[in-house]
């Protein structure tokens, strides 16, 4: 199953959503309790702007594996887009509890606090996000030997490109919510 997951991930990274979806559905047919495959189907649905479907997939992934940090963070993103900031905050906090070394939910919480004009909290979570991103750049495999970093899979390319992507996304989001 790992080979199929890697093949689907390659399609997903290239934006080949139909091919990736087909493989994730095949995985679920073979392993109905595969939370990671449901999470990835949610990612595809979110990319395609089908937030209701994405939300259902992320909830199913968390039902199957309540410790799947990426599904909690992804569900938070759906709530954020729906302007349900309290639910989004709860999801990001859960993601942090499950994987305190992942910079992404810290960054997402920072954006919520910026939007809510809670600058002290914004700064706190933004700094933590940057700190963790820098740590991953310095030691991409040290923290989890033999495993690919979760945050890295959210980025395209090398660690440097990932950090630049996070910084650029944060800049754009801050500019959007400024005011």
Automatic annotation (TrEMBL):
One of its GO terms (molecular function) is protein O-acetylglucosaminyltransferase activity. Signal peptide: none annotated. TPR repeats lie at residues 35-68, 69-102. Keywords: Membrane, TPR repeat, Transmembrane, Transmembrane helix. The chain crosses the membrane at residues 154-174. PROSITE patterns: TPR, TPR_REGION. SUPFAM superfamilies: TPR-like. It holds the Pfam family TPR_16. One of its GO terms (biological process) is protein O-linked glycosylation. InterPro entries: OGT, Sel1-like, TPR-like_helical_dom_sf, TPR_rpt. This is TPR repeat-containing protein. It comes from Tepidanaerobacter syntrophicus.
């Amino acid at each position: 199953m790992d080979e199929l997951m890697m093949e689907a991930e390659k399609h997903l990274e290239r934006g080949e959503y139909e091919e990736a979806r087909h493989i994730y559905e095949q995985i679920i047919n073979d392993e109905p309790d595969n939370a990671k495959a449901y999470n990835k189907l949610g990612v595809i649905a979110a990319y395609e702007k089908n937030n209701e479907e994405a939300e259902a997939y992320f909830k199913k992934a968390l039902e199957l594996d309540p410790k799947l940090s990426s599904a909690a963070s992804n569900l938070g993103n759906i709530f954020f887009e729906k302007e349900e900031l309290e639910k989004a905050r709860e999801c990001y906090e859960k993601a942090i509890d499950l994987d305190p070394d992942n910079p992404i939910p810290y960054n997402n919480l920072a954006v919520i606090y910026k939007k809510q004009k809670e600058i002290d909290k914004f700064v706190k979570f933004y700094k933590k996000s940057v700190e963790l991103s820098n740590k991953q750049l310095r030691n991409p495999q040290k923290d989890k030997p033999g495993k690919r970093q979760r945050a890295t899979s959210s980025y395209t390319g090398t660690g440097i490109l990932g950090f630049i992507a996070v910084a650029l996304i944060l800049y754009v989001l801050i500019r959007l919510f400024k005011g």
